[in-house]
Description:
Shape of chain A: globular
Low-confidence stretches of chain A: none
Order of helices and strands of chain B: EEHEHEHHHHHHHHHH
Radius of gyration of chain B: 36 Å
Number of strands of chain A: 10
Distance between the termini of chain A: 34 Å
Largest sheet of chain B: 4 strands, mixed
Strand order of the largest sheet of chain B: 1-2-3-4
Strand order of the largest sheet of chain A: 6-7-8-3-9-10
Order of helices and strands of chain A: EEEHEEHEHHHEHEHEEHH
Shape of chain B: elongated
Distance between the termini of chain B: 79 Å
Oligomer: heterodimer
Mean pLDDT of chain B: 87
Amino acid sequence: MKKIIEVQNVVTKFGKNLVHDGLNLHVNEGEIYGFLGPSGCGKSTLMREIIMLEKIKSGSIELLGHKIERIRSRAAQKIRMQWGVLFQSNALFTSLTVAENIALSLQEYTKLSAEEIKDIVAFKIDIVGLKQFDGTLYPSEISGGMKKKAALARALVMDPKILFLDEPTSGLDPISAREFDTLILKLRELLNLSVVMVSHDLTSIHNTLDRMAVIDNKTIVAEGTLEEVREMKSPFIERFFNEGLR
Amino acid sequence: MSDRRKVRLAIKHEEDFVRLKILGNPGVECVHVIAKELKTALTDLATETIMWDLSELKQMDSALAILIVKDIQRAENSEIEVLLSPMEHDVEKMLNMAKEHAHFDSSFEPDSRGFLEMTGEESLRRFRDLGAFFGFFGQMSIIVMHSFYDFRHLRWKETVFEIYESGIKALPIIVLTMFLIGVVVAYQSASQLKIYGANIFIVDMLGISILRELAPMLTAIIIAGRSGSSYAAQIGVMKITEELDAMRTMGFDPYAFLVLPRMVALMIMMPILIFFADIAGVVGGMLIAKVELGLSPSQFLERFVEVVKVKHFWIGIIKGPFFALLIATIGIYRGLQVKNDTQSIGFNTTKAVVESIFAVIICDAFFSIIFTNLGY
């Protein structure tokens, strides 16, 4: 299996605060991979490092065959067109409608006509389970679940190879959250996506993740499938899974 | 990533059909090549059967799939038969998905509105704006009354913080700017006064213009730019992040917590800032009087005491709290007007500054008329 992300000996420091002390993990192509751990363990930070929003102190991260700690800006831009990112707070542009939010990358990076862009946007709106009418609304006019879907549609618009999701089911009701899980599985099936997500949602972890890494005390305490991870002896893993999955 | 140069649509006329074959592996960034070739091909295509040949594709982008599905629909609508070549499993999956989820009749354009409708809507909006401002003013008056009734209502800690933030921190820039204004005004007048040999009158001119008008106005404009904008932006963001709502549910009245301290702080600090601006302006003028007109500082000050009556100073100072009230009110009001999107922060911050400077100038004009008619 091909590795699309490889994290090696990553050390992160914010001022005097050591966040990661030598992380190692890899994500295979076509996999749904999760970062787990208690709050404040640096899951989101690791994801932000992979998507080039934060710099690592030392170590290396390889993404789609590029070492991102010393990547040229053109190559970085090329990579950015091959991923989609869904932020925890959705980060939809509030001054644009949902359809405009989704169309933005197509308008900037392709030479497609307005008509063709509109068709693609309509398709993406449908595929994430929104109604066509929702495309005309502004982010402030739609509910939290719809915002999540709209942000997902925006992340998917360039047919990315990798999808990064930061706590995708947080703030959703259980039914929407399960729908979201199903949607992710379906999209992976249809679009040959690899998905990397940060998640706290046990059901979602159980339903969707192929493999996962548990980060605790600045290092990775377990990596592997759910069964493998649950066998590891760690106070966090025991508490997290046993108290949650009763 | 696909190689853009290899992407092409090959059109081949065969015995009973036209074969449309996609070459290369087009990603979303070069689907437009196919789209363009397809469009030109269709205009001079006279056939009853089309064969889409997707056999060379290893995988297909959704943009391309949508394009093909749309073309198939269009062909079938004009009773042209469409055949599909055998294709890879992934490609077929994508094509089926596009068939299932594509919508070609959606429109995301906002409904266009006529001139009359827009004019009406805009007028109504302005009218409501005015109403909202009076509402805000009323609410604020109630809070002010409350705190006059009981001084413990005023949040002294926040007020002192605002005094430092909006008042004391503004002092250097106000003093520097006013000093330069004093220099400029004195310099321009000096060259005129020299012609008539009326050197000594520079003191009258500078004294009255700076104390009465220039110092209060300049201070107000700088404070409007500095604090008016920051009030609008800060309160606007607090509104978006629901901090204001949080305060309300916790029983903290945002007016008492945010509005009053800022207003009181500015009203206290404005006269003090004007006082320092007066000094800076006069010192700037004094310097030029010495350099250009040879008027020594002691001569300057002697004449100053003689001709510039103290009422001019007080008139300048008295304006301070009024200007402060306008700037704080408009800044905070604009902050509260921010809606749930980021663009309205920029919009309202701009409005806060422009409106408060405008209000200050109008207010100054009123003072001019009133004081002149009262004989001051």
